[in-house]
Amino acid sequence: MTTDFTQITLIVNALRISYVVFIVILLTWFSYDKLNWFDYEKSASGDNVVSFNGHPLCMSLAWIVLMSEGIVAWRYYEGNLGLSHGLAKSIHTSLQYSAVLIMSIGLAIIFKNHGDKNINHMYSAHSWMGMFVVGAMVFQILLATYAFLFTKYERFKMRVLVWHRYGGLVIYLGGIATICMGFQEKQGWISCSDGSNYCPEKIIPAVLTVNALLVAMLASAVFIHEEDPMSTVAVGEKITLLTNAVITT
Ligand code: HEM
């Protein structure tokens, strides 16, 4: 089995560029007057309330940056850079734990912001889906920690590994979908000064949604490349893909 390291490096670099661009666009969006950067908001009684913007920033750092990097850690650090399995495991685990920490701060911010402004909690599809993926993520990380760091039962580890790999990818993609819904939710609250639907403040969430999707596609591509032996088989040029023909080279 041969592996195309150049291809993986290319995709991982594209992934990194995409998430850096995402964070830059997000911060640019916050800098518009209507988004108020990270300035305090006001409650009905005039008290200072923590800025809403901390929520999308923390959730994006957790899901778009840290988890994406965590997902490709095995392939990139162990497969490409040749780091030991133990070191790649530590990098993967640290990235996922950091994601949970930052994600918890992001959730605390939005619950505090809503609480102080007397806004009902958990009224949207975004918030329900968000709590579901967060719950799944926390369960996933606790199970993995127990199975891979604290037990020696190989059969149990093997069983958890299958769920961990595929479950992890699905939870990650669920989080990206939640992020896209969050931008749509926020977009609905923004009105353009000229009464149209076309101003940067309103369009940027759409750009960020597509950018988030691109990040998810690139991270999934690295993950699937790791699994798929098709790309590593020496397939002759004339063989038509998507047939059951026996491959003879
Ligand atoms: C995976 C990442 C995310 C999760 C798990 C998540 C979760 C949540 C939760 C649980 C709430 C409800 C808080 C409450 O009931 O008081 C909420 C609210 C909100 N979030 Fe997110 N969020 C995520 C990312 C984002 C992003 C990137 C945005 C982009 C702007 C966003 C925009 C909003 C908005 C506008 C609200 C207020 C309206 C509502 O309650 O739905 N969220 N989020």
UniProtKB/TrEMBL annotation:
Cellular compartments annotated: Membrane
One Pfam entry name: Cytochrom_B561
GO function terms (MF aspect): metal ion binding; oxidoreductase activity
Listed cofactors: heme b
Main location, first listed in the record: membrane
Membrane topology field: Multi-pass membrane protein
Keyword Heme included in the entry's annotation: yes
Domain Cytochrome b561: 14-224
Transmembrane segments: 12-32, 52-74, 95-111, 131-151, 163-184, 204-224
Keywords: Electron transport, Heme, Iron, Membrane, Metal-binding, Transmembrane, Transmembrane helix, Transport
GO cellular component: membrane
Keyword Chaperone: no
UniProt-listed InterPro entries: CYB561/CYBRD1-like, Cyt_b561/ferric_Rdtase_TM
Record PANTHER family: CYTOCHROME B561-RELATED (PTHR10106), LD36721P (PTHR10106:SF0)
Protein name: Cytochrome b561 domain-containing protein
Naturally occurring in which organism (per UniProt): Cymbomonas tetramitiformis
